[in-house]
Amino acid sequence: MRTKKLAYPIPVFEFVALMAMMMALVALSIDSLLPALPEIAVSLNQEGSNDIQLIISMLFLGLAIGQMIYGTLSDFIGRKPAVYLGLLLFFLGCLISFFAEILPVMLAGRLLQGIGLAAPRIISIALIRDQYEGSVMAKVMSFVMSIFIIVPAIAPALGQGVLLFANWRFIFLLLSLVAVIILIWFMLRQPETLEAENRMPFSLNRIFKAIGQICSNRVALGYTIVAGFVASMFLGFLSSIQQVFEAYGKAEIFAGGFAVFALFIGSASLLNAKIVVRKGMRFIVNVALGILFSISLIYLALSFFGQLDFWVVTIFLVISLFCVGLLFGNLNALAMEPLGHVAGIGSSLVGSLSTFISVPFGILIGLSFNGTAIPLITGFLVFSLLSLGTIFWIGKAGKG
Questions:
Q1: pTM exceeding the 0.85 threshold for the entire prediction
Q2: CA distance 389 to 381
Protein backbone atom coordinates (compact mmCIF):
# COMPACT_ATOMS: atom_id res chain seq x y z
CA MET A 1 0.00 0.00 0.00
CA ARG A 2 1.06 3.63 -0.38
CA THR A 3 2.80 5.23 2.56
CA LYS A 4 1.20 8.60 1.79
CA LYS A 5 -1.29 10.24 -0.52
CA LEU A 6 0.16 12.40 -3.25
CA ALA A 7 -1.79 15.27 -4.76
CA TYR A 8 -1.36 14.01 -8.32
CA PRO A 9 0.10 10.50 -8.29
CA ILE A 10 1.10 9.26 -11.72
CA PRO A 11 -0.01 5.78 -12.87
CA VAL A 12 2.11 2.95 -11.52
CA PHE A 13 3.24 1.78 -14.96
CA GLU A 14 4.47 5.30 -15.81
CA PHE A 15 6.21 5.65 -12.44
CA VAL A 16 7.97 2.30 -12.96
CA ALA A 17 9.13 3.33 -16.44
CA LEU A 18 10.40 6.70 -15.19
CA MET A 19 12.32 5.20 -12.24
CA ALA A 20 13.81 2.52 -14.53
CA MET A 21 15.00 5.20 -16.96
CA MET A 22 16.58 7.22 -14.14
CA MET A 23 18.47 4.17 -12.87
CA ALA A 24 19.37 2.98 -16.36
CA LEU A 25 21.04 6.25 -17.32
CA VAL A 26 24.09 5.05 -15.35
CA ALA A 27 24.39 1.83 -17.35
CA LEU A 28 23.76 3.70 -20.61
CA SER A 29 26.51 6.21 -19.80
CA ILE A 30 29.01 3.42 -19.20
CA ASP A 31 28.17 0.72 -21.71
CA SER A 32 27.30 2.84 -24.76
CA LEU A 33 30.89 4.19 -24.75
CA LEU A 34 32.62 0.79 -24.73
CA PRO A 35 32.58 0.26 -28.53
CA ALA A 36 33.93 3.79 -29.03
CA LEU A 37 37.01 3.47 -26.80
CA PRO A 38 39.45 2.68 -29.67
CA GLU A 39 38.19 5.68 -31.68
CA ILE A 40 38.34 7.95 -28.63
CA ALA A 41 41.90 6.75 -27.95
CA VAL A 42 42.96 7.82 -31.45
CA SER A 43 41.25 11.22 -31.13
CA LEU A 44 42.86 11.93 -27.75
CA ASN A 45 46.32 10.67 -28.78
CA GLN A 46 46.08 7.64 -26.47
CA GLU A 47 46.27 4.92 -29.13
CA GLY A 48 47.82 1.74 -27.72
CA SER A 49 47.57 3.02 -24.13
CA ASN A 50 45.53 1.39 -21.40
CA ASP A 51 44.93 4.86 -19.93
CA ILE A 52 41.84 5.24 -22.12
CA GLN A 53 40.13 2.83 -19.70
CA LEU A 54 40.07 5.66 -17.14
CA ILE A 55 37.08 7.00 -19.08
CA ILE A 56 35.08 4.21 -17.44
CA SER A 57 36.74 4.39 -14.02
CA MET A 58 36.30 8.15 -13.56
CA LEU A 59 32.54 7.83 -13.87
CA PHE A 60 32.56 5.27 -11.04
CA LEU A 61 34.64 7.65 -8.92
CA GLY A 62 32.07 10.38 -9.52
CA LEU A 63 29.29 7.99 -8.52
CA ALA A 64 31.11 7.23 -5.26
CA ILE A 65 31.38 10.94 -4.46
CA GLY A 66 27.79 11.69 -5.42
CA GLN A 67 26.26 8.78 -3.51
CA MET A 68 27.77 10.13 -0.33
CA ILE A 69 26.03 13.48 -0.80
CA TYR A 70 22.66 13.14 -2.52
CA GLY A 71 20.84 11.01 0.07
CA THR A 72 21.31 13.63 2.77
CA LEU A 73 20.90 16.52 0.32
CA SER A 74 17.52 15.23 -0.90
CA ASP A 75 16.35 14.94 2.72
CA PHE A 76 17.17 18.68 3.05
CA ILE A 77 16.00 20.29 -0.22
CA GLY A 78 13.52 17.66 -1.43
CA ARG A 79 13.71 14.85 -3.95
CA LYS A 80 12.96 16.84 -7.10
CA PRO A 81 15.49 19.70 -6.66
CA ALA A 82 18.23 17.14 -5.91
CA VAL A 83 17.43 15.26 -9.14
CA TYR A 84 17.40 18.54 -11.10
CA LEU A 85 20.87 19.35 -9.74
CA GLY A 86 22.23 15.91 -10.60
CA LEU A 87 20.90 15.90 -14.15
CA LEU A 88 22.27 19.42 -14.72
CA LEU A 89 25.74 18.31 -13.57
CA PHE A 90 25.49 15.25 -15.81
CA PHE A 91 24.53 17.41 -18.79
CA LEU A 92 27.48 19.76 -18.17
CA GLY A 93 29.80 16.75 -17.89
CA CYS A 94 28.57 15.46 -21.24
CA LEU A 95 29.30 18.83 -22.86
CA ILE A 96 32.83 18.86 -21.43
CA SER A 97 33.46 15.35 -22.77
CA PHE A 98 31.96 16.25 -26.15
CA PHE A 99 34.45 19.08 -26.65
CA ALA A 100 37.44 17.32 -25.04
CA GLU A 101 40.65 17.29 -27.08
CA ILE A 102 42.92 15.78 -24.42
CA LEU A 103 42.40 12.94 -21.96
CA PRO A 104 42.46 15.02 -18.71
CA VAL A 105 39.55 17.16 -19.95
CA MET A 106 37.65 14.03 -20.95
CA LEU A 107 38.23 12.54 -17.49
CA ALA A 108 37.03 15.75 -15.81
CA GLY A 109 33.83 15.54 -17.83
CA ARG A 110 33.34 11.89 -16.91
CA LEU A 111 33.94 12.62 -13.22
CA LEU A 112 31.26 15.33 -13.35
CA GLN A 113 28.90 12.95 -15.16
CA GLY A 114 29.35 10.39 -12.40
CA ILE A 115 28.69 12.94 -9.65
CA GLY A 116 25.53 13.99 -11.46
CA LEU A 117 24.34 10.45 -12.16
CA ALA A 118 24.40 9.58 -8.47
CA ALA A 119 21.30 11.76 -7.99
CA PRO A 120 18.80 9.86 -10.20
CA ARG A 121 20.40 6.55 -9.16
CA ILE A 122 20.03 7.13 -5.40
CA ILE A 123 16.91 9.30 -5.30
CA SER A 124 14.87 6.98 -7.52
CA ILE A 125 15.09 4.41 -4.70
CA ALA A 126 14.07 7.08 -2.17
CA LEU A 127 11.08 8.00 -4.34
CA ILE A 128 9.95 4.37 -4.41
CA ARG A 129 10.42 4.10 -0.65
CA ASP A 130 8.47 7.37 -0.11
CA GLN A 131 5.41 6.14 -2.00
CA TYR A 132 5.24 2.41 -1.40
CA GLU A 133 5.83 -0.06 1.38
CA GLY A 134 5.92 -3.80 2.04
CA SER A 135 5.08 -6.23 -0.77
CA VAL A 136 3.89 -3.44 -3.07
CA MET A 137 7.27 -1.71 -2.79
CA ALA A 138 9.02 -5.02 -3.53
CA LYS A 139 6.79 -5.56 -6.57
CA VAL A 140 7.42 -2.06 -7.92
CA MET A 141 11.17 -2.48 -7.36
CA SER A 142 11.10 -5.82 -9.22
CA PHE A 143 9.36 -4.22 -12.21
CA VAL A 144 11.89 -1.38 -12.21
CA MET A 145 14.84 -3.79 -12.13
CA SER A 146 13.32 -5.95 -14.89
CA ILE A 147 13.31 -2.93 -17.21
CA PHE A 148 16.72 -1.78 -15.95
CA ILE A 149 18.28 -5.15 -16.91
CA ILE A 150 17.50 -4.55 -20.60
CA VAL A 151 19.58 -1.35 -20.88
CA PRO A 152 23.09 -2.80 -20.33
CA ALA A 153 22.28 -5.44 -22.96
CA ILE A 154 21.42 -2.91 -25.67
CA ALA A 155 23.64 0.05 -24.68
CA PRO A 156 26.80 -1.07 -26.61
CA ALA A 157 24.64 -1.65 -29.69
CA LEU A 158 23.30 1.91 -29.37
CA GLY A 159 26.85 3.22 -29.13
CA GLN A 160 27.87 1.11 -32.12
CA GLY A 161 24.87 2.43 -34.02
CA VAL A 162 25.94 6.03 -33.42
CA LEU A 163 29.43 5.20 -34.70
CA LEU A 164 27.95 3.96 -37.98
CA PHE A 165 26.69 7.47 -38.78
CA ALA A 166 28.84 9.85 -36.74
CA ASN A 167 31.95 10.00 -34.56
CA TRP A 168 32.20 9.16 -30.87
CA ARG A 169 31.37 12.68 -29.73
CA PHE A 170 27.76 12.19 -30.75
CA ILE A 171 27.37 9.46 -28.14
CA PHE A 172 27.63 12.24 -25.56
CA LEU A 173 24.94 14.17 -27.44
CA LEU A 174 22.74 11.07 -27.27
CA LEU A 175 23.33 10.80 -23.53
CA SER A 176 22.54 14.51 -23.12
CA LEU A 177 19.31 14.08 -25.07
CA VAL A 178 18.25 11.15 -22.89
CA ALA A 179 19.02 13.20 -19.76
CA VAL A 180 16.91 16.12 -21.05
CA ILE A 181 13.99 13.78 -21.82
CA ILE A 182 14.20 12.29 -18.31
CA LEU A 183 14.42 15.78 -16.78
CA ILE A 184 11.33 17.07 -18.62
CA TRP A 185 9.36 13.88 -17.91
CA PHE A 186 10.33 13.96 -14.24
CA MET A 187 9.66 17.70 -13.90
CA LEU A 188 6.20 17.57 -15.46
CA ARG A 189 4.87 14.26 -14.15
CA GLN A 190 6.50 13.24 -10.87
CA PRO A 191 5.13 14.94 -7.72
CA GLU A 192 7.43 15.84 -4.85
CA THR A 193 7.26 13.05 -2.27
CA LEU A 194 9.02 14.77 0.64
CA GLU A 195 6.99 17.66 2.00
CA ALA A 196 8.78 20.67 3.49
CA GLU A 197 7.69 19.86 7.05
CA ASN A 198 9.31 16.39 6.82
CA ARG A 199 12.71 17.59 5.60
CA MET A 200 15.86 17.49 7.71
CA PRO A 201 18.74 19.98 7.77
CA PHE A 202 21.82 19.04 5.78
CA SER A 203 24.49 17.79 8.16
CA LEU A 204 28.02 16.64 7.41
CA ASN A 205 28.08 15.43 11.00
CA ARG A 206 25.23 13.05 10.15
CA ILE A 207 27.24 11.64 7.25
CA PHE A 208 30.38 11.15 9.33
CA LYS A 209 28.37 9.65 12.17
CA ALA A 210 26.82 7.10 9.80
CA ILE A 211 30.28 6.27 8.38
CA GLY A 212 31.48 5.72 11.95
CA GLN A 213 28.57 3.37 12.62
CA ILE A 214 29.39 1.35 9.49
CA CYS A 215 33.10 1.18 10.29
CA SER A 216 32.52 0.16 13.91
CA ASN A 217 30.22 -2.73 12.97
CA ARG A 218 32.14 -5.79 11.73
CA VAL A 219 29.21 -7.14 9.69
CA ALA A 220 28.40 -3.84 7.97
CA LEU A 221 32.05 -3.01 7.32
CA GLY A 222 32.97 -6.54 6.24
CA TYR A 223 30.21 -6.92 3.67
CA THR A 224 30.81 -3.37 2.42
CA ILE A 225 34.45 -4.33 1.80
CA VAL A 226 33.39 -7.53 0.03
CA ALA A 227 30.95 -5.54 -2.10
CA GLY A 228 33.89 -3.29 -3.01
CA PHE A 229 36.05 -6.27 -3.98
CA VAL A 230 33.28 -7.71 -6.17
CA ALA A 231 32.75 -4.30 -7.76
CA SER A 232 36.52 -4.19 -8.42
CA MET A 233 36.22 -7.34 -10.52
CA PHE A 234 33.27 -5.88 -12.41
CA LEU A 235 35.00 -2.54 -13.02
CA GLY A 236 38.11 -4.38 -14.22
CA PHE A 237 35.88 -6.34 -16.60
CA LEU A 238 34.15 -3.20 -17.92
CA SER A 239 37.45 -1.39 -18.37
CA SER A 240 39.24 -4.09 -20.36
CA ILE A 241 36.55 -6.23 -22.05
CA GLN A 242 36.55 -4.22 -25.29
CA GLN A 243 40.33 -4.66 -25.53
CA VAL A 244 39.96 -8.39 -24.89
CA PHE A 245 37.56 -8.70 -27.84
CA GLU A 246 39.92 -6.62 -29.98
CA ALA A 247 42.96 -8.70 -28.99
CA TYR A 248 41.17 -11.86 -30.15
CA GLY A 249 40.11 -10.22 -33.42
CA LYS A 250 36.43 -10.28 -32.41
CA ALA A 251 35.72 -6.54 -32.19
CA GLU A 252 32.89 -6.86 -34.72
CA ILE A 253 30.83 -9.03 -32.34
CA PHE A 254 31.53 -6.99 -29.21
CA ALA A 255 28.05 -5.45 -28.92
CA GLY A 256 26.36 -8.85 -29.22
CA GLY A 257 28.83 -10.51 -26.86
CA PHE A 258 28.40 -7.81 -24.24
CA ALA A 259 24.62 -8.18 -24.50
CA VAL A 260 24.99 -11.87 -23.63
CA PHE A 261 27.14 -11.03 -20.60
CA ALA A 262 24.64 -8.40 -19.44
CA LEU A 263 21.72 -10.80 -19.78
CA PHE A 264 23.55 -13.41 -17.68
CA ILE A 265 24.08 -10.83 -14.93
CA GLY A 266 20.40 -9.87 -15.15
CA SER A 267 19.19 -13.46 -15.13
CA ALA A 268 21.30 -14.12 -12.03
CA SER A 269 19.58 -11.21 -10.27
CA LEU A 270 16.16 -12.60 -11.20
CA LEU A 271 17.15 -16.11 -10.04
CA ASN A 272 18.41 -14.69 -6.77
CA ALA A 273 15.04 -13.05 -6.14
CA LYS A 274 13.40 -16.48 -6.45
CA ILE A 275 15.79 -18.50 -4.29
CA VAL A 276 17.11 -16.06 -1.69
CA VAL A 277 14.25 -16.61 0.79
CA ARG A 278 14.73 -20.38 0.64
CA LYS A 279 18.53 -20.53 0.57
CA GLY A 280 19.51 -17.38 2.45
CA MET A 281 21.80 -14.52 1.43
CA ARG A 282 24.92 -15.82 3.16
CA PHE A 283 24.66 -19.25 1.56
CA ILE A 284 24.30 -17.74 -1.93
CA VAL A 285 27.21 -15.34 -1.34
CA ASN A 286 29.50 -18.13 -0.12
CA VAL A 287 28.63 -20.44 -3.01
CA ALA A 288 29.01 -17.70 -5.65
CA LEU A 289 32.39 -16.60 -4.28
CA GLY A 290 33.53 -20.21 -4.04
CA ILE A 291 32.66 -20.79 -7.69
CA LEU A 292 34.38 -17.54 -8.70
CA PHE A 293 37.57 -18.48 -6.92
CA SER A 294 37.57 -22.08 -8.20
CA ILE A 295 36.94 -21.28 -11.85
CA SER A 296 39.51 -18.45 -11.79
CA LEU A 297 42.11 -20.80 -10.32
CA ILE A 298 41.36 -23.48 -12.93
CA TYR A 299 41.56 -21.03 -15.82
CA LEU A 300 44.76 -19.44 -14.57
CA ALA A 301 46.31 -22.92 -14.31
CA LEU A 302 45.14 -23.73 -17.87
CA SER A 303 46.79 -20.56 -19.16
CA PHE A 304 50.23 -22.00 -18.32
CA PHE A 305 49.68 -24.61 -21.06
CA GLY A 306 49.14 -22.01 -23.79
CA GLN A 307 46.93 -19.09 -24.80
CA LEU A 308 43.29 -19.61 -23.93
CA ASP A 309 40.87 -19.76 -26.85
CA PHE A 310 38.39 -16.88 -27.18
CA TRP A 311 35.37 -19.10 -26.62
CA VAL A 312 37.03 -20.71 -23.60
CA VAL A 313 37.51 -17.23 -22.12
CA THR A 314 33.89 -16.41 -22.98
CA ILE A 315 32.69 -19.40 -20.93
CA PHE A 316 34.78 -18.17 -18.01
CA LEU A 317 33.26 -14.70 -18.23
CA VAL A 318 29.69 -16.00 -18.54
CA ILE A 319 30.05 -18.13 -15.39
CA SER A 320 31.93 -15.43 -13.48
CA LEU A 321 29.49 -12.65 -14.34
CA PHE A 322 26.55 -14.87 -13.43
CA CYS A 323 28.14 -15.23 -9.99
CA VAL A 324 28.67 -11.45 -9.82
CA GLY A 325 24.97 -11.01 -10.58
CA LEU A 326 24.13 -13.22 -7.61
CA LEU A 327 26.46 -11.25 -5.34
CA PHE A 328 25.62 -7.58 -5.86
CA GLY A 329 22.18 -7.38 -4.26
CA ASN A 330 22.93 -9.85 -1.47
CA LEU A 331 26.14 -8.12 -0.36
CA ASN A 332 24.48 -4.73 -0.12
CA ALA A 333 21.56 -6.22 1.80
CA LEU A 334 23.92 -8.02 4.21
CA ALA A 335 25.89 -4.82 4.78
CA MET A 336 22.61 -3.01 5.55
CA GLU A 337 21.28 -5.60 8.01
CA PRO A 338 22.81 -3.98 11.13
CA LEU A 339 22.01 -0.45 9.91
CA GLY A 340 18.23 -0.39 10.07
CA HIS A 341 18.31 2.65 12.35
CA VAL A 342 20.13 4.67 9.64
CA ALA A 343 18.73 2.84 6.60
CA GLY A 344 18.41 5.83 4.25
CA ILE A 345 21.84 7.37 4.61
CA GLY A 346 23.32 3.95 5.39
CA SER A 347 22.30 2.63 1.98
CA SER A 348 23.92 5.61 0.24
CA LEU A 349 27.13 5.29 2.23
CA VAL A 350 27.46 1.52 1.79
CA GLY A 351 27.17 2.07 -1.97
CA SER A 352 29.60 4.99 -1.85
CA LEU A 353 32.25 3.27 0.29
CA SER A 354 32.14 0.05 -1.74
CA THR A 355 32.55 2.09 -4.93
CA PHE A 356 35.50 4.01 -3.44
CA ILE A 357 37.11 0.61 -2.73
CA SER A 358 36.42 -0.66 -6.24
CA VAL A 359 37.83 2.27 -8.22
CA PRO A 360 41.59 1.90 -7.50
CA PHE A 361 41.47 -1.90 -7.67
CA GLY A 362 39.33 -1.90 -10.80
CA ILE A 363 41.76 0.54 -12.41
CA LEU A 364 44.65 -1.75 -11.43
CA ILE A 365 43.00 -4.75 -13.09
CA GLY A 366 42.20 -2.78 -16.23
CA LEU A 367 45.58 -1.12 -16.60
CA SER A 368 47.26 -4.54 -16.25
CA PHE A 369 45.82 -5.58 -19.63
CA ASN A 370 48.63 -7.08 -21.71
CA GLY A 371 46.87 -8.29 -24.84
CA THR A 372 45.43 -11.38 -23.14
CA ALA A 373 42.61 -12.18 -20.69
CA ILE A 374 45.11 -13.31 -18.01
CA PRO A 375 45.15 -10.03 -16.00
CA LEU A 376 41.34 -10.09 -15.87
CA ILE A 377 41.25 -13.73 -14.74
CA THR A 378 43.95 -12.98 -12.17
CA GLY A 379 41.90 -10.06 -10.88
CA PHE A 380 38.87 -12.32 -10.41
CA LEU A 381 41.05 -14.86 -8.59
CA VAL A 382 42.69 -12.36 -6.23
CA PHE A 383 39.54 -10.46 -5.29
CA SER A 384 37.36 -13.54 -4.88
CA LEU A 385 40.03 -14.90 -2.50
CA LEU A 386 40.16 -11.59 -0.61
CA SER A 387 36.36 -11.62 -0.42
CA LEU A 388 36.33 -15.13 1.06
CA GLY A 389 39.01 -14.07 3.53
CA THR A 390 36.96 -11.04 4.57
CA ILE A 391 33.87 -13.20 5.12
CA PHE A 392 35.98 -15.49 7.30
CA TRP A 393 37.05 -12.37 9.24
CA ILE A 394 33.41 -11.38 9.76
CA GLY A 395 33.07 -14.77 11.44
CA LYS A 396 30.39 -15.34 14.03
CA ALA A 397 29.45 -11.65 14.00
CA GLY A 398 27.85 -12.25 10.63
CA LYS A 399 25.49 -14.94 11.89
CA GLY A 400 22.03 -13.80 12.63
A1: yes
A2: 12
